[in-house]
Amino acid sequence: MGVGPRYDSGAGSAGGGRDGGGRGGGAGDDAEALLRARLRLADGQIETPPGLWDRIRVSGTAPAPAVVALPRRRPYAVALVVAAAVAVVALGVWWLVRPGPVTLRPAGPPPTVKVTVYNSEQACRTGRSLECALRLARDPRAEYAARGNSAGRVWHGDDLAAHCVVTDGRMVRDEAGVTSTRWYLVTSGQGVRGWLPGVRTRNTREVPECPAGQE
């Protein structure tokens, strides 16, 4: 951009423009004054864009942006989360303290009651002769002295394991005249299993009745 007429050294000499120190002071001042004038002219030519102030006023009065509230968690949703957490913790505790494998053992034989053989004949209360032996029957409802109704022999004072009793067996009378229809299903110390007439013991302990089909 031009800043006015160019002043060279010749013009300065012709016009006597040098000061006493030999510097050209007049040319510098004129250039500065011309530059200031041109800046003022340029500033005056700057125009405000049309509608600028209206847009500023509109933006200043615009409503504030709406704040969207986040949805609140419902109580039942929180309860479900808590319940699930408790279930997970309980499952973990159970896994840590879970019992070992359970072994099912077969049930043992039912308990028995001890009964003692009793012989009403005084002379047969000692010794183990055949004449003093007492019979264990195979069938409590058959004739006691029948040939085929013998399961084994016992003697006075023998301890037997009574499993159960029937109360409607064949009636038996002993040598003293005592009668009974009770028969005990017993096992002897030698493993002999049979039926002992009630008159051949003086049992004072309760023995369970035999279930149907075990007679």
Automatic annotation (TrEMBL):
Key words of the record: Membrane, Transmembrane, Transmembrane helix
Origin organism lineage: Bacteria, Bacillati, Actinomycetota, Actinomycetes, Kitasatosporales
Ranges where the record places region Disordered: 1-29
Transmembrane segments: 76-97
The protein, known as: DUF4333 domain-containing protein
Bias (Gly residues): 12-28
